[in-house]
Every structure is written in C-alpha cells, then in structure tokens.
Amino acid sequence: MDPSTGHGYHGNNLFSILSRSSSERKVLTLNVLLLGDRQSGRSSVGNALIGGQEFQTGACISGVSMTTECRLLRRNFPGYFRRQGAESDLTLRVIDTPPLLPQPQSVHELCPEGVHVVVLVLRADLPHLNTHLEEHLETLFGPEWCRHTLLVLTHADHLKEAELQPAVYLTQTTDSLRALAEEVVGGVLFLDNSCDWPSIRGQPLRDRLLRLSARNHHTALTVRTEVSI
Ligand SMILES: Nc1nc2c(ncn2[C@@H]2O[C@H](COP(=O)(O)OP(=O)(O)OP(=O)(O)O)[C@@H](O)[C@H]2O)c(=O)[nH]1
Ligand SMILES: [Mg+2]
Would you say residue 50 lies in a domain? Predict the structure, then answer.
C-alpha cells in the first residue's frame, strides 16, 4: 500500500524486478494490461507488443467479442536495452481482456505483483469515449492510474486515407478524447494494425512502454480486488 494514497500502489524497486537468468543476463519483466471497448483492437495491439499472432483477433460474431476472458502471453526480447552499461532483456507479460474493464480478481490472479503499464486502446475513427471509463480505471487502480497509462489509437490507416495528420486529428477530435490524451502520462500512440509484421508494428509501442515504466521507476499498480465492476 502506498501510504500517501492508500490505494495499493506497489513500491517495487528496480532491483527486485531486474533479476539474473541462467545466462547471467539482466531481465526486466513488465506486466502490461490491455483495456478498451469491444472491437477497439486490443488483441491486435497485444500481438504487436509480443510480435506474434497468438492473441485471437477478428470481427465480433452476433455482438459477442472475440475475447471473452483474460489471457496472459509472455515474450522475452533478448538484449532489448542497456542499463548501467549492461545489456538487459525485456520480458513483457501482456494481459488481453474482455471489453471495457475485466473483473479485478481475474487481473490480480494473472499478475498479483501488479501492473506496470496500462495500454488503453481506442479506435481513432470512432473517438467517442465510454463516459465511465476513467471512473472505472480509478476504481480499479486508484488515482495513480494515469501515471501508468498510455493511449493507443488503432485504425490509424483510416486517418491516412482521410489525409489527416495525427497532430491535427488530436486538435479536432472530441473534447473527452483530447482531455484523456492530455491526462495520461504515457501520451498517445497511433497504430495501423493492418500494416507490417506485428514485431515491426510493435517496436515503437514497446519503446514507449519501457520509457513510461522507467519514468515510474518500474513500480507497479496493484489491482484493487475489494471492488467489483
Ligand atoms: N483497418 C484496421 N483494422 C484493424 C486495426 N486494428 C484491428 N483491426 C481489425 O479490427 C478487428 C478487431 O480487432 P481485435 O484486435 O480483435 O479487436 P479487439 O478489441 O480485441 O476485439 P474483441 O476482443 O472482439 O472486443 C479485427 O478484424 C482486426 O483485424 C487497424 O489498426 N486497422
Ligand atoms: Mg480481443
């Protein structure tokens, strides 16, 4: 518990996260939670992050999401970054979720040590926010959620087709999306999931995520399991 907030803010220090594998390499393990509305592109973003196709993606059938329960996939990126002169691996544990917010208990079971980065996924071409989203995030993580969150706007290909530059898009979008974009400390990243191999598409996202976590000294937010959503 963070004594200043009382909201289960987990004070992991870097050395508890960096551990040595059998080959004497340092490894940084980050838990990443994907959240978003139905068909926002969460599973596609998950695939970009892990550089694979293992999360099942596709159109909704009869209004039912492709993803109906939380699923965790883990991927190691050897020698991904350097810290204090030493090469470190980056291990991502990515949790895909059903639409909007998953039950806190399901997330807690998959990562009891907490979530380092929340990736909030929205469609750039459908920028109407669920009005309770921020409220739910606060219920799930407490007021620190925005320090650990980055916003990914998928379907950026539609902006390209409309010849709309991302920076211009952000000035013209809805007030609620603009406010959210300003609130999340990780900022906004546009993603076109229809192009490139997942591993290429995921590179800027992995970099951004690592920077955000480093800014938080790799502390993790614990899920507040006493609430139900
Ligand atoms: N054109 C385009 N299609 C995308 C993009 N991202 C996702 N899609 C497509 O949108 C559909 C839904 O993507 P998913 O990644 O399954 O979305 P999801 O949020 O996990 O969906 P559910 O689990 O069903 O709620 C799939 O057919 C994807 O191929 C994108 O950036 N551009
Ligand atoms: Mg899905």
Answer: yes
